[in-house]
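Entry, Tuesday afternoon. Goal for today is a structural model of the target with adenosine-5'-triphosphate bound, before we commit to ordering more compound. Inputs were pasted exactly as handed over by J.K., no edits. I checked the ligand SMILES twice against the vendor sheet because last time a stereocentre got dropped in transcription.
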Amino acid sequence: MSKRAHVIVVGNEKGGTGKSTVSMHLIVSLLNRGLSVGSIDLDARQATLTRYVQNRQNRKDAAHLGLKVPNHVAVPPTTDREADERRLLETFGHLTALHDVVVIDTPGSDHYLSRLGHSFAQTLITPLNDSLVDLDVLARVEPETMRIVRPSHYAEMVWDTKKTRALRGEKAVVDWIVLRNRLAHLDARNKQVMEKLLVDLAKRIGFRTAPGLGERVIYRSLFLEGLTLLDLRHGIPGFDLNMSNVAARQELRALVESIGLDGLGSEPAED
Ligand SMILES: Nc1ncnc2c1ncn2[C@@H]1O[C@H](COP(=O)(O)OP(=O)(O)OP(=O)(O)O)[C@@H](O)[C@H]1O
Ligand SMILES: [Mg+2]
């Protein structure tokens, strides 16, 4: 009997919120737990995740360091929507039959492939920069009172994809996790406002929040090197495992734990 992978989609219609960075860190974290991981890049025009994986494969020391890579497939859009959707369904079917977990990275804009990708999610992770500008894709906030007026387009899209699942005869339940990213150490007032709004909104549109990720410059330098924070324990020249990086790894661990993949793999001592 073929197994069926747990499907994690990383999505947000706002660009630059950390979807590809979170996807890659999640993938490596799951691989390090001994899970087999397939990954799909649905933002294949920009192809950040695809290049991240390639950068990792191209490292001369990859084998020596024991860097694991996912079974990665990019699904770039063409002008033929039906053919594109068919290709995604085939890719998805193939990877879910082969692996324990499939992670799907999506573009920061509305697209039919992204919608179809979202409809596969058992877990949906939405990284959100810690600002009211980013909150706008989830909800309209009244500036005078700072109250939520109504859910906005991305929240509606997530709702629609649940209906798509139900139409396919699948369970419509999605565990939707909103992850605050790039949390600043200062700016306590903004933090509080965001916190309150997210608590209100979570109840209203049905998500939960995970412990956030702090703003850390190291994320930028890791991309070209094909590395994640989880690899730094190997003692890679130029990358110290300093206090900030250790704290960042703890934040990532908290994220993976909050997804709750109980029974799938076990946490390695070093992560
Ligand atoms: N916690 C963080 N601290 C510092 N920089 C971060 C953090 N998370 C992401 N970044 C940086 O923010 C930029 C955008 O991240 P990323 O490409 O992962 O976002 P994205 O949501 O995938 O963007 P897009 O919508 O364009 O696909 C990158 O330069 C990345 O290195
Ligand atoms: Mg991206």
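The mean pLDDT is 91.
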